[in-house]
């Protein structure tokens, strides 16, 4: 079986406990900046995957042009020895991009790859924090 994506969380930072469990702090849906280019000193990512022993994966951060900005994590799934036959192994990839530069506002994405095949794309907005100047708001 192939790698399956379970969840993606974008946050301010990640704390990984001694038991390997990840805690996402400051979960984000969109990120706002006053001006561009903008730098966020730390961006935390938590990605849950399920796969077979020996499956290779890569987690990356992409810009609006779908080009990779940063590689968050890559590796090979290593299942525990007591895994039953035909059972997949679930695990969490927790990482941080530091610093991450957002060149322009737009739709960025966390992508999960198995070899050359994209498994999942989690989009989020990077927005200008400037107030809109739409006619009708305060100008009548």
Question: What would you note in describing this structure?
Answer:
The chain is mainly β. It has strands at 4-16, 22-27, 30-33, 38-40, 43-51, 56-62, 68-76, 89-97, 100-102, 106-114, 117-128. It starts with a strand and ends in a 12-residue tail after the last strand.
Task: Summarize the model shown.
This protein is mainly beta. It has strands at 4-16, 22-27, 30-33, 38-40, 43-51, 56-62, 68-76, 89-97, 100-102, 106-114, 117-128.
Tell me the β content.
Answer: over 45%
β-strand number: 11
Q: Which second-level CATH architecture applies?
A: Sandwich
Radius of gyration over alpha carbons?
18 Å
Number of helices in the DSSP assignment:
0
Taking pLDDT < 50 over at least 5 consecutive residues as the criterion, the unreliable ranges are none
Label the structural class.
mainly beta
Which bin fits the share of residues in helices? under 10%
Q: Under CATH, the topology is which? A: Immunoglobulin-like
In round numbers, the mean pLDDT is: 88
List keywords for this structure.
single chain, mainly beta, 60% strand, 140 residues, Immunoglobulin-like, 5-stranded mixed beta sheet, 0% helix, 4-stranded antiparallel beta sheet
Indicate the topology.
Layout: E1 4-16, E2 22-27, E3 30-33, E4 38-40, E5 43-51, E6 56-62, E7 68-76, E8 89-97, E9 100-102, E10 106-114, E11 117-128
Parallel strand pairs: 3-11
Antiparallel strand pairs: 1-2, 1-5, 4-9, 5-8, 6-7, 6-10, 10-11
């Amino acid at each position: 079986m192939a790698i399956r994506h379970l969840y993606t969380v974008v946050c301010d930072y990640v704390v990984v406990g001694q038991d390997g469990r990840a805690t996402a702090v400051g979960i984000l849906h969109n990120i706002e900046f006053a001006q561009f280019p903008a730098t966020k000193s730390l961006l935390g990512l938590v990605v849950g995957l399920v796969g077979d022993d020996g499956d290779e994966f890569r987690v990356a951060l992409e810009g609006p042009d779908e080009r990779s900005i940063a590689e968050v994590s890559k590796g090979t799934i290593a299942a525990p020895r007591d895994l039953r036959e035909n059972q997949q192994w679930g695990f969490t990839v927790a990482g941080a991009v530091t610093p991450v530069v957002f060149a322009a506002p737009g739709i960025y994405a966390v992508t999960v790859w198995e070899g050359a095949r994209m498994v999942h794309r989690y989009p989020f907005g990077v927005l200008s924090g400037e107030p809109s100047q739409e006619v009708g708001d305060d100008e009548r």
